[in-house]
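hi support,

uploading two proteins for the ticket. first:
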Amino acid sequence: MSEEPPEPEELPEAAAAALPPLPLPTAFDAGSLERWFALLDPVRRSARARGTWRAYAVDLAHFADWCAPTGRSPLPATPGTITDYLTDHVESLSVATLRRRLAAIAVAHGVAGVPSPTHDERVPLVWRGLRRVHGPARPPRTVGAVEVRELLVLVAPLRDTVLDHRDRALLVMGFAGALRRSELSALDVADVAVAPERLLVTVRAAGSRPARVVELPRGRRVETCPVRSWRAWAGAARLVDGAALRRTTRGGRSLRPERLGDRGVAEVVKRRALAVGLDPGSLSGHSLRAGFVTAASRAGVPAVSIARQTGHRSAAALAACVREDRPFPTNPAAHVGL
């Protein structure tokens, strides 16, 4: 997949059981299901990122569409319906996608306060068989990384318009802070403290991740300096409070008060890539984060220091961000006397 998978922690079972369930949804299209999930109490909703709830709505809508022609109920569903759905889609969907569909179905049943069919012994049995036969067939897709040389190319055409200042701040701060697109979107003006020669940015992560403070030092180049990029954007936009990154009117001539969403962050990366002749299909909002991790790893920065900046909680998730299309000077095979 192109983005890092979310890493939410589940609520304790006792706490979850004490919260009232939602009534069953009246419609099963993705938009209606996203609004249904939005009715959750803040405690349960904050346990997962906004993008995760959106993905669950899309996944559950797909399952409901498959159920409709045969009159099967998507919620509550039976174990037989789940196993039939899995075997019917194993040739057309990846194991990773089916795993997420199962998660969406299980979560939806929990939200509605009904037993999940995924807990029936037949479903894990079929799932293990499908994984054994089909699991290795399709490797996960990864997006390209924006390292410093690509970042320089992206920001080179930017000038003195409000839109250009916003996009430069987004690209430079997103790279230097190794921020997820949801974290960039969630930034408020109050989260960015300007100190001598650096920015101190409070990153309020989605889901159950704790907030962290990342330091963005003054850059050697004006065009990729986080401090100067932020100051120029904050001055041009006359930011005082509220969202740090905001939407603009069509054409970017003036600001709108609404927060730039996480999809908007990805669109900025793709639009700026297209403008300088890079392939927008190979890049996403995650490319800035992957580029930072790759560049820092290539420079020999210890993994613990990189993880302190990125907020990664596991070595495996951190390693998944590294793109190895160029040789690493610290490759251990070069130091064992071959």
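and the second one:
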Amino acid sequence: MDFIRGASLSEGGKPIIALPSTTKSGISKLVPTLKVGAGVVTTRAHVHYVVTEYGIADLYGKNIAQRAKAIIQIAHPNHREELERQSYDLYGKCCSDDVYKITKEAVKVEKAEPNACPHHGQEMGYGYHHCMGDTSRKPAYMRNHRFFGTIDFRPGINNIGLRLVRATQNVTMQYVSAEEAVGLIKNNERVFIHGGCATPERLVNALTHRNKELSGIEITHMHTEGEAPYARPEFSEAFHVNAFFIAKNIRQYVNEQHVQYIPMFLSEIPMFIRSGKFPIDTALIHVSPPDQHGYCSLGVSVDIARSACDMATKIIALVNPRMPRTIGDSMIHVSRITA
């Protein structure tokens, strides 16, 4: 197990399980479920690739139903039909790639010229603007001395370039109702929900109330507090859930196969989101009011929300004067917030 774990945690590592598709007596080694009491020494989150004599199954970033489909494709041909039937019994239509988006357009990157730090007068290297089709909205960061920065999140870029410009003074924020804000969400979008005690319940409820006018909305998040009404079976035509963590509010729906989850370690999720393999259309977040420089704080739950905000095309924020302002890489400028 340490070999697989070591590969999964290493930069550029590829954890691979290789095995023949059948036993010597012709029984499939690839099965839908383990027997009760079977020993498990490698967690599913550690395994990124499974190889048989019939091919390679790339499991990284896929939910349970998608992993089942990939593994069936490398099973012995004599067993695939039965495995597909068993998979359908377990997951139904969730085993179709049509239900969950795997990739979208590659992240567009626009290169900038070298820039000097306006405070120190030192050149900070090359800056990059991230864009998911809307060049008017670029990630805003607070770094030293309250400046914006733009970061290059392209895969393979190890030396991140940072461009600093002065923050705008006396920034005001335009407020709208939760219902008007979630009205910006369109069919077939992937929507990230801020987690933990920062779950924006008013936005979640407003979005769920649109269930009769929306379809194909994929909801993704880690642990969320409160109810998860979008996960109810009666709303399955409008919403399907692809979560990174199974919390109490969705556990029943996971057990009933109404909700899917992605086996992945918390430490891997931010880079997975930034890789472009899991594009986010809209992020629903919960923040503090902006300070005099226009910066809101993600407050009590930064975790993967930082990456989601960096990569989301649209950001819809619930502004709460009781949200604590936390220090560190937790700031988001009002220029990045759509509503």
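thanks. also noticed: The chain has three domains: 2-95, 108-166, 178-331.
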